[in-house]
TrEMBL record:
InterPro entries: DUF7385. This is Flagella cluster protein. It comes from Natrinema zhouii. The lineage of its organism: Archaea, Methanobacteriati, Methanobacteriota, Stenosarchaea group, Halobacteria. It comes from the Archaea.
Amino acid sequence: MDDVDFDELVASVTLREENQAIKSYQNTVAISCPACGSQFDDLIVCKENPTSLNLSKQLDLCVGSADDQAVIFTHKK
Ligand SMILES: [Zn+2]
């Protein structure tokens, strides 16, 4: 995943939640996950290193990095 794709991704998705550890974006425009090609549900940018996600649901995750931040794509099972 290169930085240009990531910038386009963030510009396309909708910011839903931001706290000191993460930014969470919802995939409202049906973008395909750059890692696995399936449509993802949420895009999470980790602002702190390391970061705990405290997931409340069982999710499949794809992981990338951009600008030295971990980026996580979630897929509901
Ligand atoms: Zn994926």
